[in-house]
Amino acid sequence: MAPAELRELKAQLQELLEKGFIRPSVSPWGAPVLFVKKKDVTLRLCIDYRQLNRITIKNRYPLPRIDDLFDQLKGAKVFSKIDLRSGYHQLRVRAEDIPKIAFRTRYGHYEFLVMPFGLTNAPVVFMDLMNRVFKPYLDQFMEKELYAKLSKCEFWLDEVTFLGHVVSIEGVKVDPSKIQAVVDWRPPKSPTEVRSFLGLAGYYRRFVKDFSIIASPLTKLLQKEVKFIWDDKCQESFETLKSLLTQAPILTLPIEGKEYVVYSDVSHNGLRCVLMQEGKVISYASRKLKPHELNYPTHDLELAAVVFALKIWRHYLYGEKCHIFTDHKSLKYLGTQKELNLRQRRWLELIKDYDCTIDYHPENLPGLPPEREIEFPIELIPGSTPISITPYRMAPAELRELKAQLQELLEKGFIRPSVSPWGAPVLFVKKKDVTLRLCIDYRQLNRITIKNRYPLPRIDDLFDQLKGAKVFSKIDLRSGYHQLRVRAEDIPKIAFRTRYGHYEFLVMPFGLTNAPVVFMDLMNRVFKPYLDQFMEKELYAKLSKCEFWLDEVTFLGHVVSIEGVKVDPSKIQAVVDWRPPKSPTEVRSFLGLAGYYRRFVKDFSIIASPLTKLLQKEVKFIWDDKCQESFETLKSLLTQAPILTLPIEGKEYVVYSDVSHNGLRCVLMQEGKVISYASRKLKPHELNYPTHDLELAAVVFALKIWRHYLYGEKCHIFTDHKSLKYLGTQKELNLRQRRWLELIKDYDCTIDYHPENLLGLPPEREIEFPIELIPGSTPISITPYRMAPAELRELKAQLQELLEKGFIRPSVSPWGAPVLFVKKKDVTLRLCIDYRQLNRITIKNRYPLPRIDDLFDQLKGAKVFSKIDLRSGYHQLRVRAEDIPKIAFRTRYGHYEFLVMPFGLTNAPVVFMDLMNRVFKPYLDQFMEKELYAKLSKCEFWLDEVTFLGHVVSIEGVKVDPSKIQAVVDWRPPKSPTEVRSFLGLAGYYRRFVKDFSIIASPLTKLLQKEVKFIWDDKCQESFETLKSLLTQAPILTLPIEGKEYVVYSDVSHNGLRCVLMQEGKVISYASRKLKPHELNYPTHDLELAAVVFALKIWRHYLYGEKCHIFTDHKSLKYLGTQKELNLRQRRWLELIKDYDCTIDYHPGFGEGFEELGASKGFVFKELDLGLLDSLPLACFKI
């Protein structure tokens, strides 16, 4: 062992001896020890009992199946989780077996008296005890003296994480933190590594359709006498499994008494089936065909799939009603068939044990579809001649697949041999499930086909119709296009050539230019009356891809729910992973995909303008910094795209329109929620329009683009050009204005003034911004910073704008600060004045800024949130007249001074907060009286959750804002104390979410001490990575409820003090700190008392005057008030504790001494696997 491990070994052995869990041994047995790192970077002592386990008789007591555990939770809405403290150590080992579990170390030979980790039968023996204890009541915890670890228990949760799964009222899904291990797995280099990967991935096989079939190239590598060769098929299988697990669906939990539906199927790859209830998937199952089954006839294979489903889901289906769908028609009449072979008779007997009905549902279409009122026509441009192209070359594997698929299409009657003069080539495209889709390259035919102008529905219109829906269903037609015939005279035109012959389609194939609109025409005709026409028109749905009664539905790259519409994260990933384009074609592809979600991105057209310029004719392709910036900004904004609400018919719409030198932009809202964003660049001729006309153009743009929402509905339009409010009364209008006015009159809309920017000086208020200097200070004047040409142009424009508004004026002051630019999120430049020298000599204003914790605490119980953003807040406050010269600034274009409060001054936040407190104290209505303007486009009302100061607040509580945490995740290892300080500053902002923050961060904080040399070692790296990891998994913290009792759990270790504040079993906050040097000499009693005092001090604002229950793992603290002999420090702390209405109780930190466990449990450890999870002693309860 390393020196550090030896020190840790010595400490842990001492601790185990003191607890009475181990004793010195003279046993002839002796296993070695090793250390394994835990999540919190501490070391877990492990005994390597592998040799002992090999000769131990295995206990066959059944461990519960995880499926059974989850099934019992159906219908539960609230969950609790109890974690027994050092569970195994709460069970004695049978006396005669103690010598067998002895272990050897450098510091001696010891043996356990309690059950250690790593023994082969430990989980089942512990499970036996759990079953005996839990059978009657949970109260037996007390009777059996089983201690729970309160800090790891959770009560009254909406969802609970348990054994790698997340369980909620919706169902069961995979735990994302566990799946990350699969995602990060590197390609295996040996059968052992393949086995490890399949072991972890296979744990979630019920979530993956066709798991066994997809994994077959990997499972082949595990067969004996098969050489390990990692080929393309293995890599493909490996990547597909990783991809499918990250997109794993939520599986529903079964409801007893409800009918089950099974959909079974067979292919040349294997058997597969889906178990459903009420249209929701409960589980997927699949297996490869065994070698002898490859010779079975199709009938027997289809029957084998049914039997496979009944056997694997027997625990669900036996004794319950079940409807089985198969795509083999003869199985429907299985019971009436007279001649059956031995295998079929055996399977029929098994099927008769179940209350099941077998029905036919085709996986593939049975022959040509019936003749319908619509056939697919192909009208050619006059003068067109037949096109015939040589077949493309194919790889041997593709040729084999081509032969098989042609045979299948011929058998179905979808194609026939052709003698047509037409002939398109064929190619293959890989599908998601790694199979190959046969595609005909009809591009040449499409060029000479007359386009059908039948309108495809706009995706916005589809979503708008879903407003108010709480439950969604999705139906996927089976091989939709193949359910429509081609017009007889057009069949020769869609002929195609292959190495195996010349064929032509009789049904509509994929790839033809008018196929979508013709199919949509049919859908509209069919769906108009009723969905029942599916049966009448013989249109088959693919049950395995249909979904019913969903809380949210994924459709065409969007996720629709009762909340509204958001982008589908799996689709956005393609945008995020896009590499910088290297040609106009690649730019066009990127903008095509990103532009599909333009309604989610404010100012999309304006931000994308550097990219759209590259698509103009005669513009040379040069990828510069502006293009890269635009590219990255679009990607970033799409990953943070908001949820857009769906419009409610009859409710008033609100439009906020605006214009800048970049373009027109507007926002459509209803009830304070955004429905859509829209923007466009100014056209060249519009650059000459006067401001009035541009503002009017923005209003007209909004009315036109959202006509389908606004026409015939009440609408309130806000513009920042005051004269538009009186547009209808103006007498002199030019031709363009008159035309636009006529258009506006068609709408029931009111135009009101709402300033985008403040105009003129704000009114005089009771508060002005003062600048008090340290006595003896002299004026400071600094030379202007150098700027790039683009920055100088921007400076000139912004100075002119500030002068026009009256916010600045020319100055002759002896003071002068330099200016610089900082980029904003929307890639525009913010003008900043460098007031650092002035701030150093300014007397600080001690007006208190609110603590963020206090702000959040006031929101407890709120279900709906609103956020108001004051427009250019600081500029709404004047500077005191005599202090104006002090904030002068120098530029290349002159010397100016602010008349309103600028950014960057040391006291600006507290003066502004003082004004806010005075204004908000009585009512929010004073906004109008005080002429404080809010920025509507940045305000949000009636939200289920609100993002505020790097946190997300909802009815559930407070969590970290993922977009802010990304900065922590992307942080590179610091290379200096300054960089460490910056990292800890950002990470420390969220310290209340991280248990033991100070202790974990201690290697980093050491680097900030004076006279400590900066050395970035393994401990620092470990601390750095652990903090990043914990912040990405930060929990939701609850908000405190006034009047409810608080619970504090305090603890101390050789690292520091740590405590947890809870209420009703939910965590409000974590707190920790390192021990100070002098505290290292304190006795244990005083350290435990220090942890209690630390909790009372740090959470005084919660606990003072409230009932509080404090748990400590030091028993004597319970009797602190009755102790007679106390030192000075203890007396002082006792006086502090008496100020609180608190009760101190004992709750063991790591279990009690062996002698206190007692033999009263009536349980001994009879016969004694390294690597078994210590989470097995968990229990999950249905509330």
UniProtKB/TrEMBL annotation:
Reverse transcriptase RNase H-like domain sequence ranges: 258-354, 651-747, 1044-1140
CDD domains cross-referenced by the UniProt entry: RNase_HI_RT_Ty3 (cd09274), RT_LTR (cd01647)
Recorded GO MF terms: endonuclease activity; hydrolase activity; RNA-directed DNA polymerase activity
Record SUPFAM superfamilies: DNA/RNA polymerases (SSF56672)
Matches recorded under InterPro entries: DNA/RNA_pol_sf (IPR043502), Retrovirus_Pol_polyprotein (IPR050951), Rev_trsase/Diguanyl_cyclase (IPR043128), RT_dom (IPR000477), RT_RNaseH (IPR041373)
Pfam family, one: RVT_1
Segments forming domain Reverse transcriptase: 36-147, 429-540, 822-933
Name the record gives this protein: Reverse transcriptase
Native source organism of the sequence: Solanum verrucosum
